[in-house]
Design the sequence.
């Protein structure tokens, strides 16, 4: 687990601004293959394994592509949020950005690395903005379980 926080006070035009950035990375080893993991992750309609999301408005079978914007409902509030797919490298990387709250920029990246022991799932959270500390305080326990839940979901599906 890698964790990095930066907090800066900036003075510009006689006003004080604070800048907050958080980078957190979780890494889990999964016995399933990269193909099976990618199939589960790229099914944007099924987020049953994700402890942060409840449901999405994506039709079954839609493949994530850069520029795709869809809506999801979190487990915390019934208000839908927009999710923007930034970068896709099939079977390797999926990067999305949450467009939810002004004052918070939240980017999530999933990466898969194949090894002799299995497949490593890296789940990275990058948050910026003045409301980020408050949002991080709320989602931190759930974000810590995302990669492990994805691995458990795929392993139970394969077994």
Sequence:
């Amino acid at each position: 687990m890698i964790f990095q926080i930066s907090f800066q006070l900036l003075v510009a035009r006689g006003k004080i601004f604070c800048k907050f950035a958080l980078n957190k990375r979780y890494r889990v080893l999964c016995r399933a293959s990269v193909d099976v993991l990618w199939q589960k992750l790229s099914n944007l309609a099924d987020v049953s394994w994700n402890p942060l999301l409840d449901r999405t408005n994506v039709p079954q079978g839609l493949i994530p592509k850069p520029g795709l914007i869809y809506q999801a409902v979190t487990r915390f509030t019934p208000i839908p949020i927009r999710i923007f797919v930034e970068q896709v490298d099939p079977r390797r990387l999926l990067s999305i950005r949450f467009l939810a709250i002004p004052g918070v920029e939240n980017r999530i990246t999933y990466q898969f690395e194949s090894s002799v022991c299995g497949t490593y799932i890296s789940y990275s959270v990058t948050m910026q903005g003045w409301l980020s500390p408050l949002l991080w305080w709320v989602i931190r326990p759930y974000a810590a379980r995302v990669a492990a839940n994805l691995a458990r979901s795929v392993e139970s599906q394969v077994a």
Observations:
- The helical segments are 34-42, 132-143, 146-158.
- The beta strands are 2-12, 15-30, 53-56, 69-74, 80-89, 93-99, 105-114, 119-128.
